[in-house]
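Support request, please re-run this one:
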Amino acid sequence: MPTETAAGRSDDRVADREPHALPKGADPRLGTWRTFLHAHARLTRRLDDELRAAHNLSLAEYDALVQLAQAPGRRLRMSVLADRVLLSRSGITRLVDRLVADGMVERSTCATDARGAEASLTRAGLERLRAASTTHLEGVRRYFLDSIDATDRQAIDRGLGQVMDGLDCAPPSALEADLAAEA
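Re-run finished. Output below.
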């Protein structure tokens, strides 16, 4: 049940933090997974909304510009950009098409493989990225970094680092087998 704040309005945030009910017999660790998913979805939605409102730039577009800015020569093969931005090949093509139309990115044939295409950051794209970075980084600080103390940030970093390490070569876990059996 939502609580009333001093201003007299309902505070749904308290209710939103309560763990989601798990099916009887479910692994209790799934609550952590669900909390992570919900926090990630809400945080990325908020950051996306702020970038769109202030700079008419989506979070995915911002991420693509960051990836290009950090790449050698400020250019990447489209397939590499798709992997780094976590989009499908067709998704990255549509995103880059929008960035090209806005003058932030140029597309060219790959110099080392004529079958491949590359995206490169333009000066206008770099300027737009720099302007949007202030908004984005302020949001990351306000909604994520300031919400978690240093000890918890270190624990999150360690834990997610272990997840990333395990994804490179880990076989399916017993938990995955249990979930598959329940489906």
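Strands lie at 3-4, 10-11, 75-77, 105-109, 117-121. The longest helix spans residues 30-55.
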